[in-house]
Amino acid sequence: MTKRIFLSILVFSFFQISFGQDVHWSQFNDNQLFQNPGQAGHFDGDYRFIANYRDQWRSVTIPFSTFSMSADAKFKNYGVGLLLSHDQAGDGKFRTVEVQGNFSRLFKITKDSVHTIRPGINFGMNHRQINWDALYFDNQYNGYIFDPSAATNETYQSDRKTNISIGVGSLYEWRKNERFKVLSGFGIYNLNRPNQGFYTEKIQRDIRFTLFAKGTFKINKKWDAVPSLQFNNQGIYRELLLGGSAKYYLTKTAKVYQALYGGVWYRNRDAAYLTFGYDYKDFFAGISYDINYSKLVPASRARGGIEIAVRYIIRTFKPKRIIHRVCPDYI
Asked: 274 with 288: CB under 8 angstroms?
């Protein structure tokens, strides 16, 4: 029982440290609107729908689960998208719900569209709440036994907080063709530093900076290399993710397109993870699993979390515009 109490205290301490951080994803390239507002409308098609789910630390405590859904569309050179995410962490069911609107505009650097930039802006609502009664505190352990009826000596003001957040970002793409292209970008989030404190003290949410780069390079008729990296910085926290996938074309015809992905990735001082994906026409499904090697290994036993990504693109029928010439009448 004592071990369980200390483990709960340890996890809650880790959980307190994480209050100031935004959620993160292993399959960061498959949650485009979360990655950068300039991604709104950046795809081949008319409408795009994406769903992401992440479950982690199931072997340590109550699982930390994150779910996200997004939809975006493009209209000529403009892109618009909506992102909804829900995150729940730990014994106290610390819940974060966000709704974000994203807008972008495409600019061609060269007339042949080989070089383009797409700046974007993000407006969001962030709601957080916690169940204090479900948590254990070190003040409730008197050195001999744990007394859940003992005072916690915690003076929190409320158990929920709602704020507005603002972010900006931009993409740059060099695209020679579908199998030889480079995409990079940066994003800055929480520019208005919203107050997210549950206590009387004002605690501002740190600005998050994101840099990423992704390339697609043809190796031969059947294989592509897809390397990528992303760096996040938020307050005192830094996260570097890098790795790559190999893409193998099963079929690549005008009517049927299928491809498989397999990759290995690294998150600094935290985990390594494997990814697998499958393309079928305009549908994509991906899965990844984190293998934890951080200081939490004695409790997690190297088990991190599983993540699933699903994407579907709709292409509307556009009939060709045929201009008929009127033949002159000759008498």
From this structure: yes
